[in-house]
Amino acid sequence: MDVNQFPTTAVLSDYVTVCELDGIKVVRVVHPKATAAISLFGAHVLSFQPSGKKETIWMSEKADLSGSKAIRGGIPVCWPWFGKAAEPSHGFARSSEWTLNEHRENEDGVIISLTLTDTADTRAVWPHAFHAELLIEVTNTLKVSLISTNTGDTPIQIGGALHTYLNIGDITETTVSELGNEYIEGGVRKPSSGHTRFNQEVDRIYTHANETVMVEDPSFQRRLAVTNQGHNAVVVWNPWKALSASMGDMADDSYQTMVCVESAVYDRSVVLNAGESHTLSTVVSAQ
Ligand code: TA6
Predict the structure, then answer these.
(1) CA 185 – ligand 1 centroid, Å
(2) What is the predicted pLDDT for the residue at 128?
(3) Which residues' Cβ are closer than 6 Å to ligand 1?
(4) Which domains does the chain have, with CATH numbers?
(5) For the CA of 82, the nearest atom of ligand 1
(6) What span, in angstroms and rounded, lies between the C-alpha atoms of 57 and 175?
(7) Among candidate residues 247, 182, 223, 192, the one with its CA nearest the CA of residue 54
(8) What is the pLDDT of residue 4?
(9) Residue 6's pLDDT band (boundaries 50, 70, 90)?
(10) Which residues fall within 8 angstroms of residue 256, CB to CB, at 6 or more apart?
């Protein structure tokens, strides 16, 4: 995604502007170390491109950017649950309007802070008080941290994912490795060789992955390192032909240039007592 093409609506600093794209407001970072774009709808990273390198984040050319449904591509913030644990699928955070809380910058990069707190709408689907903050650190790497705080007076159970869509040259040549010895697919636990290639749909929850997962992309002649913390699983997803053709917001062949590597908490396994916080993070680095 070319972040320079959108009309600027506000200048916040030498490196940070706000622009509008269809129905969404986008915080745009243009810094000597990297460029990035973050939608306030969903607190959704749309782009991260380190200086002199290719785009690292995949966006669907058919993504709905009207602000009325979750955006396909980028880094959806799935929260307070992962997948179909409840309705809506992957939680409500990715289709909520977040607030730009703060931006800080220096010669090393820019930090953007977005926040979301409970409202009558969120309590209607999840009856809890919370404060969520997404910190996006744009340097020569991208770090995204989701800090969840229980602001109510009874324990809450949360899950979620930083559902990163990585931009790759060719899925048929791509290998994802450092995935550990077990995954769950279709509810069934299976032994893993620790790496995977792709020739059909892959939708796996790796329960023992290393902290850093590697994506080898010979077509783009690069490796992407994805370093996760605060998670209990790494989810690897590529929808392959039939599923991407069936999705209205993906072009039929667009599965060929993306793979999701997600820092995830499945089974809502984080319990936060009153006042407690949890941080889920992911770092994307192009090598
Ligand atoms: O993280 C993998 C997954 O849960 C898949 O099962 C697949 O459905 C994908 O996320 C996308 O989900 P979405 O709700 O965005 O269509």
Answers:
(1) 13
(2) 98
(3) 70, 83, 89-90, 163, 203, 235, 237, 260, 262
(4) 3-286 (2.70.98.10)
(5) 4
(6) 17
(7) 223
(8) 77
(9) confident
(10) 170, 171, 172
